[in-house]
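It would be a great kindness if you could assist me with a short task in structural biology. The full record is reproduced below for your convenience:
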Amino acid sequence: MRVTDVKTYLVCPISHTAGMIGGKNWLFVKAETDEGIVGWGESYTQLDRDRNIEQHIHDLKRYLVGRSPFNIKQFCRMVYDDFAGRRSSMDLYCALSGIEQALWDIVGKKLGVPVYDLLGGACRSRIRVYANGWYGGAKTPDEYAEKAVETISLGFTALKFDPFPGRWRLFVDKEVERRAVANVRAVREAVGPDVDLLIEVHRRLSPMHATRVSHMLEPFAPYWYEEPVPAENIPALAEVRRDTRIPVVTGEALYGKAAFREVFEQRAADIINPDVCNCGGILELVEIGAMAEPYYVAVSPHNYNSTTIGLAATLQVAALMPNFIITEYFLNFRETGNQIVETPFQVVDGTIELPTRPGLGLDLDEEALAAWPYQQYHKRSLPDYDDEAI
């Protein structure tokens, strides 16, 4: 069996044009073979960078066509060592991740088994998920609370949200801190003590702000405190972890397993959240999770991707890892996601049943994809130097 072609599909979900949280295009990869078996993958995207990532896929295609889809590890290593000259980047890892998933999908279909059965077998039959993308448009504590109640009524038992107003800045005034705490307080009071609240900080803060806010949030018993400081400064993250009683998370902005070494060595996080669509793919995520095990670090795969292929690849890995705890489900991506697959994943009591079909467990409807063509996002209001003075 040989790979004969690689195609890409940039898809614009309704959330992209509706101004919801998660305004971005999805990028799917389809690998074809001379035996007629096809594999699907998904690459992580960001606003204004989706076309660049797609081009990386087509550049890599030149070196994949003609190879066996079974030699996944060698191909990925060649991409890093030889194609990229051992110079990594987010865009390259996103492209590689989508291709790598598609190869596993082919192999699983050829052998008639789910991907997790090729990598050690499942540790669980259901995968716990938390809701994200549910609080778009919320600006006041009451609005956050109202949307939180609506979301748990859909069967979710865990909610992730960024309670901080304004742009991402290392140094903020006390009003930003107070408003963030007020939003968390309102959600906790609205949903009660049993719903897990996952606090997203998006690499916003310097350690002094991150630590102070964490102390203010502790009475509300957050499940975690995600990326309180920039991801590239591991000692700063370790400083925050030492000074808070809330479990600290990092990983979505770290690409490849080498980037996690210092996190473990410095005990900088309680939980890691690498993304299968940007960390290097399924096997890379499995290996990162295995690295975390002897450090007693849990794994919660990030999934700012569609509720189709990206989620399917995440479920395959989540099934494998003994130290998995929960993964991400973007609620506002569900509407479009459900229209491009025949049998979408269903969230029941905060969990998704592990798929048992060969490969990743689902295929995309190419005719349905055509109904959601790529759209460039509107020009964002990025700050000028006058804005920074305010």
